[in-house]
Amino acid sequence: MAILINLDVMMARRKMGLTELSDKVGVTLANLSVLKNNKAKAVRFSTLDAICKALNCQPGDILEHVPDEES
User: What's the distance, CA 23 to chain centroid?
Assistant: First the structure.
């Protein structure tokens, strides 16, 4: 996938665990875990907004575009 989710990096920088982020954002641990492990196929803007507010960051701090390697 060409989009990486660096949620774990921002959580580490803010010294915030998954449970605390889940409580602040109102998203289940399971759904945040899917995001954190780059298994998500989509993310709602409202969820991204809540995560950015909780972590005091910008969407670009969490989302990163990495071009696919072409054969």
Answer: 15
Q: Is 3-65 assigned to CATH 3.40.47.10? A: no
Kindly state the tokens that stand for 65. 């575009």
For 24-33, the pLDDT digits (tens) are 999 999 999 9
Give the pTM.
Answer: 0.88
* Of 35, 44, 47, 43, nearest in space to 9 by CA: 35
Closest of 54, 25, 45, 18 to residue 63, by C-alpha: 45
Q: How far apart are CA 23 and CA 31, in angstroms?
A: 12
Of 62, 2, 1, the residue nearest 32 (C-alpha): 62
